[in-house]
Amino acid sequence: ILILWKGTSTIEAAVRIFVPLMWLFMIVLIVRGVTLPGGIDGVLYLFTPNVAALSDASVWQTAFSQMFFSLSLGLGTMTAYASYLPKDADQVNNSLVVSFMNCGFEYIAGIAIFSMLFAFAIVPSGGTLSLSFFVIPQGISEFPIWVKGFGVFFFFLMVIAGLTSAVSLVEGVAAPLIDKLGITRAKALTFVTVPGIIG
Q1: pTM assigned to the model
Q2: Which of 14, 108, 115, 184 is least surrounded, with the fewest CB atoms within 10 Å of its CB?
C-alpha cells in the first residue's frame, strides 16, 4: 500500500532500489556457482539443447506458461503501467526492453541455479520455487565469508520479489478504477487491498 500510495513516483522509487539489488545478488550467486567444482558443467548442461525435446508439446506449453506468468500477461498489469507512458512513447521499443530484461534475468538466474545443482549433485527437477528454496540456500551455505548475512539478504530479496509482484497485481486493478470511475487513488487502493487483507 505504501509503495502504491503516490502512484508512479513511489512505485518507481521502489523499483529503482529493489530490482538492481536482485540483479546484483544473482550475479554474486553466479560467481559463486561457477567457481564451485562442477559448476561449469551445470552451465554447459543448461545451454546444451535437447533437440528431441523440442517436438514435445508440453515443453512449449511450459515455456509459454512461464513467459506469460513472468511478464504478467493477461492480468492487466502491463496495460496499467503502459497507461502512464507519454502519448509519443515508443511502445515497440518499450515492449522489447521489458521482454529482453525479463528474459535476461531468467538467464542469469538459470546459470546461478544450474551451476549449483551440479556442484551439489542435485537432480535438476522441480519448479522455480523449489529450486530457489533448496538449491540457492545450499549454495549460500558454501560461501567462504558472511554466510548468515548472505542468507538473510537472499530471503529479503525473495520477499521483495513477491512484494514487487503484488504491487503490479494491485496496480493492474486499481489503475482502471481510478481512470474509469474517477475516484481517488486512496479509495481505489482501499477497495482493492482491504478484501485482500481480510482474505
Answers
A1: 0.71
A2: 184
For residue 166, give the 3-state DSSP assignment. helix
**Tens place of pLDDT for every residue, the chain, 199 residues?**
777 777 777 777 887 888 888 888 888 888 888 888 888 988 898 888 888 888 889 888 888 888 887 777 777 777 777 777 888 888 888 888 888 888 888 888 888 888 877 777 665 555 555 666 777 777 777 777 777 887 888 788 778 878 877 887 888 888 888 888 888 888 888 888 888 888 7
The H-or-E segment that residue 69 falls in is: helix 57-70
Phi/psi at 45 (5° precision): -60, -40
DSSP state of 145: S
Q: Side chain identity at 25, as an amino acid letter?
A: F
**Cα–Cα distance, 44 to 115 (Å, whole number):** 9
CA distance 81 to 72: 11
Which helix H or strand E contains 73, and what residues bound it? none
Please name the residue that has the C-alpha cell 504478467.
Answer: 72
Amino acid at site 106: E
Block residue for cell numbers 562442477: 38
